[in-house]
Amino acid sequence: MFAEIAASFQHGNVYLKVMLFLGFLAMTVVFERLIMLNFVYNLDFTKFLSDLRKLLTPDDTSRALSFCKSVSGTSLPAITRRALEAAETDPTTIRGVIEEETIAFLPRIEMRIGSLMAFSTLILLTGVLGSIDSLWNTFHVVGVLDTSEKQASLGTEIASALNPTAFGLLLSMLILVGYHLVRGMAMRLTERMHYGVAVINNLLVPSDLPSFMPVTMGVTTKEAPIVAGGPTAPSAANTTMEGINSNANTGNNPAESIRDEEEII
To answer: DSSP assignment, residue 222?
Structure first.
């Protein structure tokens, strides 16, 4: 199979050259993502957060700021640096700065990874199209040849027509392996970023900041509600008390009425 593919390259098969070019682009994306995810964006998050806790004090953030600049210019150190700068100017903006920087950085982890699936599919379809084109040419040529030459020519041409499909399958499998490798690394890095951002948020955001949720302030008093009739209208409680006092003053006590009836009898 490999010898046939090499022979097709020597004969200048256009489909093989197109697939080779697409495979080169796809593998370039794979290697670029591997370098960025392993050596640029990735770091020892546990060690970085532990050192940051030691350097970060409520009154002095300059040492923590210098530490973040020395570690990396991107990823979690860059987000922390922007949050520290916001803490020095206006502590109320720390949460917003962390959210903005995180939202701006996370898509860079997934950048160009989705294009690998497109490259894999396009290479495979190009190989199938190349095989179909070669088979068409083979059947046209066989129709012109004599009967004695048709069998040998048909076998050779059909075998060579399968070369684009075989080469496309090989490249597609290689790109799929690179895609799943890079995809898994990106997912792990994203999870670590979420953890680091949560720790930075807990470390830097002041706990006494007012909540942004609307709070309904209720006033609890011991006074009875005012009934309709204006400010001069007596309350229900005052009206009840006045009725009791008036009954007591006028002698309308129920116990005294019962005693009076017994005396009459």
So the answer is: S
Q: What is the pTM of this model?
A: 0.70
> What pLDDT, on the 0 to 100 scale, is given for residue 60?
74
Q: Name the amino acid, one letter, at 150.
A: K
Q: Which amino acid is at 248?
A: A
**180-188 long-range contacts, Cβ below 8 Å, gap at least 24?**
181/30, 181/34, 182/30, 182/33, 182/34, 182/37, 182/113, 182/116, 183/113, 185/33, 185/34, 185/37, 185/38, 186/33, 186/37, 186/109, 186/110, 186/113
| Contact residues for 124 (Cβ-Cβ < 8 A; gap 6+) | 168, 169, 172
Indicate left, alpha or beta for 12 from its phi (over 0: left) and psi (-120 to 50: alpha). Answer: left
Quick check: helix, strand or coil at residue 220?
coil
Cα Rg, the chain, nearest whole Å: 41
Longest Cα–Cα distance in the chain: 149
**How big, in percent rounded to 5, are the helix, strand and coil portions of the chain?**
75, 0, 25
Q: Cα(67)–Cα(88) distance, rounded to whole angstroms?
A: 16
d(CA 87, CA 85): 5
What single DSSP character describes residue 92?
G
Tens digit of each residue's pLDDT (9 = 90 or more) over 58-81: 667 888 999 999 999 899 999 999
pLDDT in tens, 105-125: 999 999 999 999 999 999 999
